[in-house]
Amino acid sequence: MITLAVSAIEKNRAAEVSMLVNTCVGCHGNDGSSVGPATPSIAGMRKPLFIKAMQDMKSGKRPSTVMGLLAKGYTDEEVEMMADFFSKQDVVRYTQNFEHEKAERGKELHNQYCDGCHKIEGRDQPLFNALSGQWMPYLKFRLSDFRNGDASSSMMASALEYFIMNNESEESLEDLLHFYGSQE
Ligand code: HEC
Ligand code: HEC
Question: Alpha-carbon Rg of the chain, whole angstroms?
Fold first, then answer.
């Protein structure tokens, strides 16, 4: 009896999750692997990062185009259920239009300035967003937001300030994007 009741609850929950995420996959792609280019993949995103992103976009702390309004429609419990679902999906990394030379330079810059937090090798750093294979136009928007008042991360604000201080040309930021885009 008890097992039956539990499995009925689980079934209901699975149906509820699939109804919730149905709204998201229209933009974020099948199981959260976006076909780009300005909508990020959210498959495999760590739960705490996912929840923080939703909260920051909802409160307006993090600027957004569509997500701020959309996030307002969900309770904390629903966000948690969606975070759980997407964190368990494998991300599909699509081939992007990157230039080899820029990607090579970007790799060195990444290792010097970014890898301490955003590990590329292993791709399993739990505390920071995975950048490899994320859509280049999306990353570009996000980087320029961090520099123009995205208050969601003081760590990123200072990491970029330090980076810009040491690499005066804007091209070096572009090189980083080509490196992330080259990670299929
Ligand atoms: C109309 C298209 C659209 C829909 C529908 C949509 N998103 Fe988004 N999502 C975006 C865009 C575009 C961004 C980038 C931020 C912005 O500009 O709003 C984004 C960003 C995000 C991020 C941040 C990712 C990161 O790397 O920081 C999360 C998490 C997210 N969406 C979750 C969801 C969830 C959960 C749903 C379903 C309830 C959803 N989205 C529905 C377009 C959409
Ligand atoms: C001290 C740690 C740290 C360093 C160094 C760092 N970052 Fe970050 N980065 C973060 C954190 C924390 C976040 C999550 C921000 C949030 O909560 O939205 C982040 C988020 C990002 C995002 C947004 C990803 C997404 O899915 O929206 C990009 C892009 C990014 N970092 C690029 C870089 C680049 C490029 C460098 C090197 C120049 C760098 N980071 C160095 C901590 C760091």
Answer: 18
For residue 155, is it within any domain?
yes
Atom 13 of ligand 1, nearest CA residue: 39
Do 65 and 17 lie in one domain? The reply is yes
Asked if residue 6 and residue 70 are part of one domain, the reply reads yes
Torsion angles phi and psi, residue 142, rounded to 5: -65, -40
Q: Using CA positions, which residue lies closest to atom 6 of ligand 2?
A: 114
From the alpha carbon of 21, which atom of ligand 1 is closest?
37
Is the Cβ atom of 128 under 6 angstroms away from ligand 2? Answer: yes
Residue 125 pLDDT > 80, yes or no? Answer: no
Q: Is residue 35, in this structure, part of any structural domain at all?
A: yes
Checking if the pLDDT of 121 tops 90, the result is no
Residue 93 falls within a domain, yes or no? Answer: no
> What angle separates helix 2-28 from helix 76-87, to the nearest 10 degrees?
80
Q: Whose Cα sits closest to atom 27 in ligand 1?
A: 53
Q: Per residue in 28-43, pLDDT tens?
A: 999 999 998 999 999 9
Q: What is the CATH number of the domain that holds 153?
A: 1.10.760.10
Element (H, E) at 26: helix 2-28
Residue 26 in contact with ligand 1 by CB distance below 6 A = yes
Of the residues 59, 87, 115, the one at which a domain ends: 87
130 lines ligand 2 (CB under 6 A): no
pLDDT in tens, 78-102: 999 999 999 999 999 899 999 999 9
